[in-house]
Amino acid sequence: MKQKIIKTTCTRDCPNTCGLLAVVENNRVVKLTGNKEHPINEGRSCIKCSHYLERVYNKERVLHPLKKVNGKFKRISWEEALDEIADKMKKICKVKTPESILYYQGFGARTALKLVNRRFFNLLGNTTITKGTICGGTGQGSQDLDFGNRISHDPRDYGNSNSMILWGRNPAATGINLLSRMTNIKKRGGRVILIDPVNTETAPLCSMHIKPKAGSDSYLALALSRILHDEGAEDKEFLKEHCINYEEYKKIVYSHTVDEYSELCDVPVEQILEAAEVIKHMKPTAFVLGWGLHRWEYAHTTLRAIDALGAAAGSIGVSGGGVSQGFEEYAPYDWNIWGDQLQPKRRKFYMQLLGEELNKADPKIEIAMITAGNPVSMLPDANAVKKALSQIPFLVVAGHFLDDTGILADIFLPVTTFLEEKDIVAAYGHDFIGPLNQAISPVGECKSDFHIFMELGKRFDFANEYVKPLDQWLKIIMKPTIERGISLEEIFQGGTNNPEAPKVPYEDKKFPTPTGKFQLMKEFELPKGRDQDYPYQLMSIASREWLCSEVTLSEQKELLPMKINQEEGIKLGLKDGDKCIVENQFGSIECIAKFDKTQRRDLVVIPRGGWGQAKRNVNELTRPLVSKVGAGTPYYETRVIVRKMYGR
Ligand SMILES: Nc1nc2c(c(=O)[nH]1)N[C@H]1C(S)=C(S)[C@@H](COP(=O)(O)OP(=O)(O)OC[C@H]3O[C@@H](n4cnc5c(=O)[nH]c(N)nc54)[C@H](O)[C@@H]3O)O[C@H]1N2
Ligand SMILES: Nc1nc2c(c(=O)[nH]1)N[C@H]1C(S)=C(S)[C@@H](COP(=O)(O)OP(=O)(O)OC[C@H]3O[C@@H](n4cnc5c(=O)[nH]c(N)nc54)[C@H](O)[C@@H]3O)O[C@H]1N2
Ligand SMILES: [Mo]
């Protein structure tokens, strides 16, 4: 059998954005593996990749357009589907206002060509779009305050680190590219410390695991800085020469003793001292922050206290050091193509408050289109989101499966996977720009978002300026990168580093802040958490086995696991493996209790991403809220009670 090997890149919502090789026989991908030539993943790939073909060729995948008639989906043609969508949109624009049309773009895939999606709605008029983010906004917002711009170290630079502090990150599940770099630090005699309230799969891979009270890390960062200051081990030159607000920051650091901090973050003093020893003696220290840290209302205090600790530790602008959080995955593209400048005055809904925004909308939403997202499973207060989306007169969903959002659609449009597409993708975990060379033709009648929007665009009077061939749009969108000397051919042959990306950010100690200096935090406020009468903090974190809500129904036969400290479980009358109820003011779900002897007693852990259809949606319990900085989503500001289930 003749085989083809196609170089492509994973576009799934994950910081790794691995370079992959698709082995193709007879227009079918028979194997998907890591590409050894890719400088970041170097041939590695994760469990999600090895199972991805099961998703591409899954019998639950939708392969032709569907329309709901009398509550049941029936197959229709693309012509019918697109005509109906275009007619309804034109009518609403005429008899009401484009404001009654909502576009919601999820985080499913963030490739170059996706920029034309929102452009379509901007050309249509002052349609409603979303603001805020359900992923990394808080980290970006906070680091922008300190550094002027959030720029992270290239993962390859960890080859120069002598220690690493993984703070609220779970690379064993979410970050395959970090694992070998962690191992190499340990091999060189350095230490890798994990700071995470949860016992994750990453903990056994680290030299030490510190488990602070969830959401209280700013106290831990301040305690570490206080020890450095007490011992005269702070980076005096950097703090005095390259920072502003040093006196104010020092006052915050000295506002508590190490013992008081230890109590506030619930970490034994000995552990804080041990971590301080590593920061003092194993320089440079790379502080590597995850996304878990973001999901708190006051997450900026944590981020900013860690940035400041990085400054005190002498990590900033230093090879092998840094406080790295993430990368701008849209960096290589021309943002004008989104076309938001065409609609400067328009309504925007907070993504994370979608249920509430839809309920109070005036004018109300008549048509909504959702692409690459599953808001019913992934937004907080899922019950409210589901109810509000169900009430929209005409809902169009473009995706792969009839997930919790898909099943609400009036028209469902089946979309290709990245293996069926030509495109370009950048990452939020590194600076490498990767190609999507089309490996196979579309499965069934699926079409890419790009082709859907082009064909929809043909039906409108702005078609002339909107409808262009794919290669032409790619050239337009990639213009800034092409101007930096990179050709598209180079990208399609394997990819390239973003030429703008520094290997060691801020090596020149110049910061794009208004003062040109690193801005240390000068205020500190961390109010007491809410709902203290509910005993457990609910940590709804990423699962190692699956990605966000990309699961199928047949994989969701069991109830969600809920990890609880063994003694707490026994206190509640539970046995390991018992069914239980987890509930609060937002909802109630059934779970299977899984005992963990060493887990913190004040929290329970339930993986995110399950579907309500399978009684596995943890977001039926989460609080809809916007973080104080960066318009992020504080999913973990949620507390619950756990009850034994009787009589079932
Ligand atoms: N297998 C898999 N991979 C994924 C995903 C997935 O669902 N599954 N999701 C993808 C997405 S969308 C993203 S954004 C990334 C996320 O990547 P990560 O940030 O690595 O993963 P998370 O589970 O979101 O959070 C990491 C850890 O933060 C911890 N954490 C939460 N709150 C706190 C706190 O207050 N203090 C401290 N110190 N730690 C805290 C959690 O316990 C969790 O273990 O991964 C991507 N990759
Ligand atoms: N409780 C709780 N909830 C959370 C989080 C948490 O920590 N706790 N984390 C949050 C985070 S970090 C994130 S990023 C969000 C993710 O929230 P979403 O982006 O809504 O979730 P996904 O499950 O990634 O949904 C993406 C969907 O798009 C589809 N898809 C993939 N590629 C394409 C494409 O090219 N076109 C189209 N049309 N569809 C495509 C996929 O099949 C999938 O169904 O969830 C958030 N939700
Ligand atoms: Mo995310």
TrEMBL record:
Key words, A-Z: Iron, Iron-sulfur, Metal-binding, Oxidoreductase
Domain 4Fe-4S Mo/W bis-MGD-type: 3-60
Pfam families for the chain: Molybdop_Fe4S4, Molybdopterin, Molydop_binding
One MF annotation (Gene Ontology) recorded for this entry: oxidoreductase activity
CDD domains: MopB_CT
The enzyme's E.C. designation: 1.7.99.4
Class in the EC hierarchy, top level: oxidoreductase
InterPro entries: Asp_de-COase-like_dom_sf, MoPterin_dinucl-bd_dom, Mopterin_OxRdtase, Mopterin_OxRdtase_4Fe-4S_dom, Prok_Mopterin_Oxidored
Residues that span the membrane, as ranges: none
Xref: Gene3D superfamilies: 2.40.40.20, 3.40.50.740, ADC-like domains, Dimethylsulfoxide Reductase, domain 2, Formate dehydrogenase/DMSO reductase
KW Metal-binding (keyword) present: yes
The family this protein is said to belong to: Belongs to the prokaryotic molybdopterin-containing oxidoreductase family.
Record-given protein name: Anaerobic dehydrogenase
